[in-house]
């Protein structure tokens, strides 16, 4: 039995299996070994994804900022895009919704990224700062980015990681309650806090891109 992987007729990888159960592997070039290792890594990641996807667990809903003009704001959504252009990128985006309405959502993002070499490999680093205001909630997120790029036959595969912190402020003093005789809400509703609270938590993200 033989499996042959062809790479544009430049080199080959053959796997032979004898009747005695012993096999051997012969590689044409070192680059093919790297691609084969990357293929196995992606397969392993896919298996882990399906295991997590099939696991039954409880989750809590979150409010995520809304963007437009995503072609100018790639790194805020996917850290794998950091350094994909091969040059230094700086961006600043401000999006306002429901203009004129008090407490309307407003999202501001400032970021930058650049391609570099880390341990002799094509990599990238970057930083994103995002401030999102919606009603009585204000969330500030600061993330550092790092990405690794793999040059394939017809494109570039990027794998990125973002790590940072999230500072969220909940200002319950801005809540407007119905009159005390209302059956819907009153100023003693335990589900609606009327105090100002602040919380800081770690944040991490992972992304894959192919361009």
Radius of gyration: 25 Å
Helical region count?
Answer: 2
Runs with pLDDT <50, length 5+?
Answer: 1-27
User: First CA to last CA: what distance?
Assistant: 36 Å
How do the strands of the widest beta sheet line up side by side?
4-5-6-7-8-9
The count of strands amounts to: 9
Succession of helices and strands: EEEHHEEEEEE
Beta-strand residue fraction: over 45%
Shape type: elongated
Oligomer: single chain
Q: Could you give a short account of the major beta sheet? A: 6 strands, antiparallel
State the secondary-structure class. Answer: mainly beta
Mean pLDDT: 76
Work out the helicity level.
Answer: 10-25%
Describe the structure.
The structure is a single chain. This protein is mainly beta. The protein is built from two helices and nine strands, in the order E-E-E-H-H-E-E-E-E-E-E. Strands 4-5-6-7-8-9 form a six-stranded antiparallel beta sheet, with no helix packed on it. A three-stranded antiparallel beta sheet has the order 1-2-3, covered by helices on one side. It starts with a strand and ends with a strand.
Features:
elongated, mainly beta, three-stranded antiparallel beta sheet, 211 residues, six-stranded antiparallel beta sheet
Short overview:
The chain has a domain at 77-176 and 193-210.
Layout of strands and helices, then pairs:
Layout: E1 2-6, E2 12-17, E3 23-27, H1 30-53, H2 74-77, E4 89-96, E5 106-118, E6 121-134, E7 137-151, E8 156-171, E9 196-210
Antiparallel strand pairs: 1-2, 2-3, 4-5, 5-6, 6-7, 7-8, 8-9
